[in-house]
Amino acid sequence: MRSHGAGSGLAVGNVASAVLAIGRPDFPKVLIETLRRQAGVGHCMVFALTRAGAASCLLDAGNIPTGADLGAAYAGQFHESDPNRDALFEGEGGAPIMLPAFAPRMYSARYRKIFFNDSDIVDKCATAIWTGDICFYVNFYRITSQGRFGDAERARLQAIAPAIGASVARHFQQAATPDQNLAALFATRAPLCALTPREQEVCRHILLGFSSEAISQGLGISLHSTLTYRKRAYERLGISSQNELFAIVLSLLSGPQGLN
Asked: Which single residue of 113, 115, 172, 255 has CA 20 to 30 Å from 248?
């Protein structure tokens, strides 16, 4: 099932920290903290799947002690018997995919014992996105002490899934710094590329968390000039706040072109 999202505005403040951690060594830590804060996710695992049949575990973060072992087992052979496999491969094409709600009966007895019963997992949600020949399969889990995801938590996961999937894919596709990622986005994608070079610099620093004073010092310009460039940039983009600037960036990252 493809996700149509719940509006980029909802996802803005929710996943901004994870988006800005793309390319950094602490990306897994920031990602799981973001997911816990927004939807009570206990554990997150990311797999890369190819049409040729290869599978690998790229990320294992959270509260499941045997997570690394489960990742290795899934990548080794169990990915072939995943009941979500058909939905993953039918969804190839670049748009975010939301997988069906978890139901134990979907899985074989052996699969269920290893990946749910023995590991204390009681619920999962998942999203995926194809970039080229690779499917990035992002799984969100909860254990017994947490209970199953509530309706509100599932709704929040569905809302942020496109941005989370795009962020994961972008992180593992290249090792550029966050500022290099943003510079490439501002240089090539509308409406950001319509800004002047100085307006782009100011906006990139805003997205990286710099205060107006720090931006002024870093660019060697007055505080008045920084505020003027910010005002002009916001006017060109038709926005009035930092959150709306985040929304533009997240919408571009969530689209298939944003991952190239």
From this structure: 172
CA distances to 63, 136, 225 from 1, rounded to whole Å, are: 28, 15, 48
Strand ranges inside 115-173, DSSP E: 121-131, 134-143
3-state secondary structure 47-99: EEEECCCCEEEEEEEECCCCHHHHHHHHHHCHHHHCCCHHHHHHCCCCCCEEC
The pair phi, psi for residue 142, each rounded to 5°, is -135, 145
Q: What is the pLDDT of residues 114-167, one digit of tens each?
A: 999 999 999 999 999 998 888 999 999 999 999 999 999 999 999 898 889 988
Q: Are 127 and 161 in contact (CB under 8 A)?
A: yes
| Interval 30-45: pLDDT, tens | 999 999 999 999 999 9
Nearest to 38 by CA among 154, 135, 210, 162: 154
The answer to whether residues 89 and 79 touch, using CB atoms and an 8 Å cutoff, is no
- Contacts for 102 with CB less than 8 Å, ≥ 6 apart: 123, 124, 125
Closest residue by Cα to residue 79 from 59, 103, 42, 107: 107
Please report the beta strands in 94-208, taking only residues with DSSP state E, as ranges in sequence order. Answer: 97-98, 121-131, 134-143
Going from the C-alpha of 126 to that of each of 24, 47, 154, 205, 212, the distances in angstroms are: 23, 11, 10, 32, 38
